[in-house]
Specification:
This protein has 294 residues and is an alpha+beta fold. It folds into 3 domains: 56 residues, OB fold (Dihydrolipoamide Acetyltransferase, E2P) (Beta Barrel); 129 residues, Band 7 domain (Tetrahydropterin Synthase, Chain A, 2-Layer Sandwich); 48 residues, no CATH class. Helix content is 40%, strand content 21%. It contains 6 helices and 11 strands. The chain has a 6-stranded mixed beta sheet with strand order 1-5-6-4-3-2, with no helix packed on it. A 3-stranded antiparallel beta sheet has the order 7-8-11. A two-stranded antiparallel sheet has the order 9-10. The longest helix is centred in the last third of the chain and has 41 residues. The chain is elongated.
Length: 294
C-alpha cells in the first residue's frame, strides 16, 4: 500500500513592527538600501541616502524585506518638502552645484567666514544651512505653490520650468539676503561672469495615497477612452451601412444577402423560383431548389 506523503505547512515569518533605519545608498530600482534590526537588507521606498527614517515593512522574505517610509526623522540635506497649490506635500530630491565667488573672497570672509568659522567643515556646513538652504527651500516652496499636484506629477515639461524658475529665484534671494553675489555657477572663473548656480531636481516623491489615486484615475480614463472608441467605431460602421444601402437602392437587401451567402455566413436560403437571382455557393455549401408541395 502506497504511503501518503504529508506536506509541511509553509513557514510564515512573523510580522515586522515599524523600525528606525538609516538609508545607506540607492538600489537599481530607485529604492534606498538600509538594514533591519535582524541584519536583513531592506529596500525602502521614499527614502534618500543619509536619512534616518521610520519604516513599515510590507514584504518580508528570508534574506531581505521591502518597506515604505512612515516618517522622516532626520531628513537628508538633499530633501526639500513643499506644499502644492492644492496643499499636497511634494517632496523634492534636489542638488545645487556652485562655486564660491573668489573675486569677493575678502568681504565674504569678513561678513560670513569669521562669524561661522567657515574655514572648518562644521562651520562651512552651518553657513550653508543658514544661508543657502534657507533660500533654496523658500524658492522651491514659492514656485511649488503655483501649481496643482496633478500637474507637477504628470508633466515633465512643468518640472523643467520649475527647475529653471527656482534656479533664477535662488540666485536673486541669495544676493538679496547676503548683500552680494557670493555664489556662482560651477563653471565660474576668477574675473569672469558670476552666473546662476546650477539647480537640479533629481526626483519628486508624493504621498503613497496620492500616487495610488492618480494611477487609479489614469486606469479609469484609459477604460473610458477605450469604450468611447468602441462606440465611435460602431457608429461609423452603422453610417457605412446606411450609405451602402442608399447607394444600392431597392437591391440593397438582396446585395446584403448575397454577401452573407458568399462569405459562408448563411448555409441555406429560400428563394422564389421566378426571382431571377443567381447565386454562387461557397465551398461546402449546396443549393437545393424546393418543389412546391414537397
Amino acid at each position: 500500500m502506497a504511503q501518503r506523503r504529508h506536506r509541511s505547512a509553509p513557514v510564515r515569518r512573523p510580522a515586522v513592527p515599524p523600525q528606525t533605519v538609516v538609508a545607506e545608498k540607492v538600489a537599481a530600482g530607485g529604492d534606498a538600501i538600509a538594514h533591519l534590526d535582524d541584519g536583513r537588507v531592506v529596500f525602502v521606498d521614499g527614502a534618500i541616502p543619509g536619512e534616518t527614517v521610520q519604516v513599515a515593512v510590507h514584504t518580508s522574505k528570508k534574506d531581505f524585506a521591502k518597506a515604505s517610509v512612515l516618517a522622516v526623522l532626520e531628513p537628508s540635506p538633499d530633501r526639500v518638502v513643499a506644499p502644492s497649490k492644492d496643499r499636497v506635500q511634494v517632496s523634492y530630491q534636489v542638488a545645487v552645484y556652485y562655486r564660491l565667488n573668489t573675486d569677493l573672497l575678502r568681504p565674504f570672509h569678513e561678513q560670513f567666514g569669521l562669524k561661522y568659522q567657515a574655514y572648518t567643515p562644521s562651520g562651512w556646513n552651518a553657513l550653508i544651512e543658514d544661508t543657502f538652504r534657507q533660500q533654496l527651500e523658500n524658492a522651491i516652496q514659492e514656485e511649488t505653490r503655483r501649481y496643482a499636484v496633478a500637474d507637477i506629477y504628470g508633466d515633465a515639461d512643468l518640472l523643467l520650468k520649475i527647475q529653471g524658475s527656482v534656479q533664477t529665484t535662488l540666485s536673486d534671494r541669495l544676493e538679496l539676503a547676503m548683500g552680494k553675489r557670493y555664489f556662482c555657477s560651477p563653471t565660474f572663473q576668477p574675473g569672469g561672469e558670476c552666473s546662476d548656480p546650477t539647480f537640479v531636481i533629481k526626483k519628486v516623491d508624493l504621498p503613497k495615497s496620492v500616487i495610488t489615486a492618480f494611477e487609479a484615475n489614469r486606469t479609469s480614463e484609459i477604460q473610458i477612452k477605450t469604450k468611447t472608441n468602441e462606440v465611435e467605431q460602431r457608429k461609423e460602421e452603422a453610417r457605412g451601412v446606411e450609405v451602402l444601402n442608399a447607394a444600392l437602392g431597392p437591391n440593397g437587401a438582396v446585395y446584403a444577402l448575397l454577401k452573407a451567402i458568399e462569405s459562408g455566413g448563411v448555409k441555406f436560403w429560400v428563394l422564389p423560383s421566378d426571382g431571377g437571382v443567381t447565386l454562387n455557393t461557397p465551398d461546402g455549401a449546396t443549393g437545393t431548389t424546393a418543389t412546391p408541395g414537397n
